[in-house]
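ok posting inputs for the manganese (II) ion job
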Amino acid sequence: MILMMILSAEPFELIPGFLNQDEGEGLLAELDAQVAWRDEYLQMFGRRVRSPRRVCWYGDEGVGYRYSGHDHQAPGWLAPLEGLRERLQTQIGADFNFALLNRYANHSDSMGWHADNEPELGPEPVIASVSLGATRTFLVRPTQKIPGVRRNSTRLPLEHGSLLVMRGVSQRQYQHSLPKSSQPCGKRLNLTFRHVRPASADVASRLIR
Ligand SMILES: O=C(O)CCC(=O)C(=O)O
Ligand SMILES: [Mn+2]
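and the output
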């Protein structure tokens, strides 16, 4: 019991095969067809730059939050996501009211270094990240830079059907990214379930991803 408690407090816990091959393929096909994928643009050094992936979001109606300079208001849930949300809530023992979906068309799509540390997520959010499609490498590194010390990254292969649970200090003490891959690969969908709290008046600065 004590061991389980220690293990379950790991900031990054990877569960390969959370969805089996067929469940994952079914969900991928449904989501790819039904989701209103959209491009998102960032202001970088005074220029408008397209994010190197497509995105969409769902959640309890009225729930929303702001990241990367954009408001994301949930329009409700899409049917294929509802069963998955239930399953994740039971498995992890946390409530999720919002899901951010990312679509990486191929090896050139990516997400830069960041932490999901928006104030609406709280200081120690629990984030459930489900991967479908091509395996991509997820990198984790400490947030703190120590002069003269190289920041080593840990590599986690996010396979089709895997679940990565981020919790505890994962967003305060670490950053993560999904770099471009040198190996050509097909599409990958990533679904991150989160719990968004009502927005505070004091909205802190946002990371550009
Ligand atoms: O695609 C991934 O695995 C990473 C997604 C992510 O970090 C995010 O949506 O904040
Ligand atoms: Mn993230």
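notes: Residues 67 and 206 are 6 Å apart (CA to CA). The pocket of 2-oxoglutaric acid (ligand 1) is lined by residues 100, 102, 111, 116, 129, 138, 158, 176, 178, 190, 192 (CB under 6 Å).
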